[in-house]
Design goal:
With 387 residues, the chain is an alpha/beta fold. Helix content is 38%, strand content 19%. It has 13 helices and 17 strands. A seven-stranded mixed β-sheet has the order 4-12-11-10-7-5-6, sandwiched between helices. It binds pyridoxal-5'-phosphate (PLP).
């Protein structure tokens, strides 16, 4: 039986998969089981920030595997201490909690916000405002937080206490602040279609939250760790949320999620109130240290912005392209006549990995992609768009 048959016989069919089985990769190129090569413009959904099997990353994860692969969180490890310090230094936050995914990082943020309010104001102030068209994860709680009706089927009852407000509409937000302990936003809605928030809205939102002692939670699971050309996307907006969650690209392709909190709320989750068996796993922290050390560098981040401009310039000259959205190497392309999924599927046949987001073609290339690799991938994409 081949890989795809064996897979489909044994793995739940929760994903719409393309008929490709990958075997290996290096730099920004993956190779399937037939030896065919693919240029990567998707990073495993923003996860392989340094491409496939970056040498320093491989070295760090492998030597950690040989040293010690896991201890419970009843003990300390140097690699987790180093990673925590690295992240706090890179972001200016005072403390971090480690999980293994974006959903878990957001669960932590939600629990933290509710307990912050409970400790200070008692019961009842438990609502959390999230934005229409947001995406915060697939667990029951983060699905409940997600502001898209299409995610609210089958799994009733959902978790109570989430209220949706319209993005970029400050009056709508103001009308929904009863018994609210936190507002949670993505600065660029990723799954929702690569749509950035307006700066004035974010400024006003941060002011209102500070004034009312409502915690501002930034879900930077997709936008964080250099994706937008700043270490955190919040830097583009000149604000500092109380809590920032990270995952996806944070550890270069090993499972890792982080919930970062400022001084105001970093001691809220006290002993016994939260935990994760795998959280802060040494292999993941070793990978994360390599990513943070490479990405938290002005020249590296400036290059992310330059590559973004390069891609946008090439694509905006194409007739079929209607509009380009996003920040840094998080790019959404609205097409005039073609269907995004058809384009993505054709590109895969031609040896280029792309993504969709809603009706758009979405690009999330590895942050260290070279201009040569960009040119090769763009040539494939542009030929398809022009055909
Ligand atoms: C991907 C994503 C999540 C969920 O992350 P998982 O690791 O799949 O749990 C949450 N929020 C945002 C903004 C995301 O893009």
């Amino acid at each position: 039986m081949n890989t795809i048959e064996k897979f489909d016989n044994n793995v739940m069919h929760t994903y719409g998969r393309f008929n490709v089985a990958f075997e290996k990769g290096s730099q920004r190129n993956a190779v399937d089981e037939d030896g065919k090569q693919y240029i990567d413009f998707g990073s495993g959904i923003g996860t392989n920030s340094l491409g496939f099997c970056d040498e320093d990353w491989v070295e760090a994860v492998c030597s950690q595997a040989k040293a010690i692969q896991h201890t419970s969180n009843y003990y300390y490890t140097k690699v987790q201490a180093d990673f925590a310090e690295n992240l706090c230094n890179a972001t200016g936050y005072s403390k971090v909690f480690f999980g293994n995914s974006g959903a878990e990082a957001n669960e932590c943020a939600i629990k933290l916000a509710r307990k912050y309010s409970f400790d200070k104001y008692g019961k009842g102030r438990h609502n959390i405002v999230t934005l229409v068209n947001s995406f915060h994860g697939r667990t029951l709680c983060t699905l409940s937080a997600t502001g898209q009706d299409s995610f609210h089927n089958y799994f009733f009852p959902f978790v109570e206490g989430f209220v949706n407000a319209k993005a970029n509409d400050i009056e709508d937000l103001k009308s929904k602040l009863d018994n609210v302990c936190a507002v949670m936003v993505e600065f660029v809605q990723g799954e929702g279609g690569v749509i950035a928030l307006e700066k004035d809205y974010v400024t006003a939102l941060a002011e209102i939250c500070a004034e009312k002692d409502i915690l501002l939670i930034a879900d930077e699971v997709q936008t964080g760790v250099g994706r937008t050309g700043k270490f955190l996307a919040s830097e583009h907006f000149g604000i500092k949320p109380d809590i920032t969650t990270l995952a996806k690209g944070i550890a270069g392709g090993v499972p890792m999620g982080a919930c970062l909190a400022n001084e105001k709320c970093s001691e809220v989750l006290s002993k016994g109130t939260h935990g994760s068996t795998f959280g802060g796993n040494p292999l993941a922290c070793a990978g994360g240290n390599v990513v943070v050390n490479k990405v938290n560098n002005k020249d590296f981040l400036d290059e992310v912005i330059k590559k973004s401009e390069y891609i946008k310039e090439k694509l905006s000259a194409i007739d079929e392209v209607c509009e380009i959205s996003g920040l840094g190497l998080m790019i959404g392309i609205t097409l005039k006549t073609k269907n995004a999924l058809d384009v993505v599927s054709k590109a895969l046949d031609e040896g280029l990995m792309l993504l969709t987001a809603k009706e758009k073609v979405r690009l999330l290339p590895p942050l260290n992609i070279t201009y040569d690799e960009l040119d090769k991938g763009l040539e494939i994409l542009i030929n398809i768009l022009n055909s």
